[in-house]
Amino acid sequence: MKTFIKSAVASALVVSFAGLPVIAEANVPLKHDSEYVIDGKIYGMPKAKIYRDDYNGPAVVGDYVTMVPHLAELDYKGNKEHEVRMDVFSQKVEVAPGVSYNAWTFGGSVPGPVLHVREGDRVVFKMKNRSTEEVVITKPFKGASPYFDQIAANQLQKHQPVVAPMPHSMDFHSGTVAADDKWATIAPGETIEFEWIANYAGTYMYHCGTSSVLMHTAMGQYGAVVVSPKEGYPTDKEVDQEYVIVQSEMYLEQMGDEYIYDHSAALARDPSHVVFNGHVSALSENPLKSNAGDRVRIHFLNAGPSGTSSFHVIGAIFDKVWAEGDPRNTWYGMQTVLLGASSSATVEFIVPEEGVYKLVDHEFADAERGAAGALYAGPRKK
Amino acid sequence: MYKWLSVLSMVVAAQAAAEPVIIPAGEYKPAVLLDETVEVVVMPAFKLDAAPVTYAQYLEFVSENSKWQRDNIAAIFHDGNYLKSWPGNEQVPAEYEDKAVTQVSWFAARAYCDAQGGRLPTLDEWEYASNYYLQQQNLSDKAYAQMLFARNSNPTAYSKQHVDANIEHLEYMHNRVNEWVEDYQLLLTNGDDNDLLAGSCGDSARFMADFGDASYATFFRYQSRSNYRPQSTTSTLGFRCAYDMEK
């Protein structure tokens, strides 16, 4: 084990000599004998464990796990190990006025919770398939993440527990691991546990990879992990607000009084709704807030499952855009950011003056189906 | 207690009276290609229960086979939730007698069918019977796909079944429960015989005969079933039994 830690330090030194910034304390020590380091990044996670237990505690656990559009503040220095749980279960959610469906979810909302970590952090992840249970997320739960309080305070999706037994899995794009054991499908009642290192900074999608992956994602199984760079973004000290937006398509058809998934529409890429943060009104009922002259940062993920997004803020220009959220990928002065399915960008803009700034997918067929929201700007305070 | 038993015995008698349905010999084209060299499967005739096994029928089985009762089943044969909703070893949930029994593992389903002189249908038999049923019911591909996709988000397992004792056709193939089959793990499983890519993350086109509504719905039903373990018990997974033709 000692030799592994040595090699981690040595590798960090090599990176420093190469002239790239490295924070000395920013290396999580190697934990398992299988691990090794390349370019300061840790690989070789142990195999996932799949087991059954009677867990019936809070469905979402982790101090840095929030509900969109919130992002938890990283109030620690360097790197740490995160214990994170996002159970998988079904929940009736509203996506447009009068339109609810029985979603398959991570943590009960669509999109699922936002996980915030720092580049180099280790995540020890647990997920129980509780699709055979009615799981309540609208009541406070001791030991639960901040996500629960935020859900309780924002009932736009009108969450109701439902039972829809189904095998599911979890695929974190932020993890660099072999998918065959880590992203394995688990049957109802089973728990999967695995680790990954946030080796790369950026905003990453997570989703269920169980076949049909189109159906599982379209049913609501996706969300965002924000991996903040070790050294931060160059504008960290100037940023006034930081938000997360996840865009996605819904493919629903009415059947009696209910709405069900429409696989033909999903294959034809003909969504019934395109939404920011899971509801056509998510960012108009609860608009983002700022003031004139503020620098606003948005981590924007297009979860798809199949469409593109052309994100635009009406009245603003993106001062800086980091493609995929990696600070090495800087673009300047962009009016619109085009994102394929599962692509992201971290964008910043200066709020020009007091007023209302519409956020849209400038592919207007998408905007007309719900991909629109707003940022309200108060008077200048600086 | 006595009164309750007598009511139940009437229900059991009515249920037990329905004879299995004869599925005539024929050919069918699988919607999901288990073997890329086999496009058409030739099926001999066999018999299949007209409807999924009900709570009342299953109660009769556990009454006669105490080792398959909720509190007596061997731990290796289930995932901890076997018959979990039953109030007692020989008592089904109130008003569940006519519903499709669920929370039954593959092991338990096999034992039940064995006790009836039958067996679980093979995957081919079940799918062939499903095609036969869809033709009999004159269901369009779209209607069939809707039925399956609706069931996956709004489970139908909790509806009662009404089966005529003299019925000669299949009932409730797609609007009650997903059903165990003998070789359910053949395709894209997590077991030893799995396909390398296991059909995950969009890798399913290789297994599809065509990309129509019906085939996709069928594929999805296969795939979700193949991801269960033989110990799995859920509130939407049931079964019916098959029987060989008398020689």
UniProtKB/TrEMBL annotation, chain A:
Location of the Plastocyanin-like domain: 91-138, 185-231
Source domain of life: Bacteria
One Pfam match: Cu-oxidase_3
Signal peptide segment: 1-26
GO molecular function: copper ion binding; oxidoreductase activity
CDD domains noted in UniProt: CuRO_1_CuNIR, CuRO_2_CuNIR
Classification via SUPFAM superfamilies: Cupredoxins
The keyword Signal is annotated on this UniProt entry: yes
Keywords, sorted A to Z: Copper, Metal-binding, Oxidoreductase, Signal
Keyword Metal-binding applies: yes
Protein name, per record: Nitrite reductase
Automatic annotation (TrEMBL), chain B:
Keyword Lyase among UniProt keywords: no
InterPro entries: CTDL_fold, Sulfatase_Mod_Factor_Kinase, SUMF_dom, SUMF_sf
Keyword Signal in record: yes
Single Gene Ontology MF annotation: formylglycine-generating oxidase activity
Signal peptide range in chain numbering: 1-18
Highest taxon listed in the record's lineage: Bacteria
Keywords: Signal
Domain Sulfatase-modifying factor enzyme-like: 21-242
PANTHER family: FORMYLGLYCINE-GENERATING ENZYME, SULFATASE MODIFYING FACTOR 1, 2
Name used for this protein in its record: Formylglycine-generating enzyme family protein
Organism: Pseudidiomarina marina
Lineage, opening ranks: Bacteria, Pseudomonadati, Pseudomonadota, Gammaproteobacteria, Alteromonadales
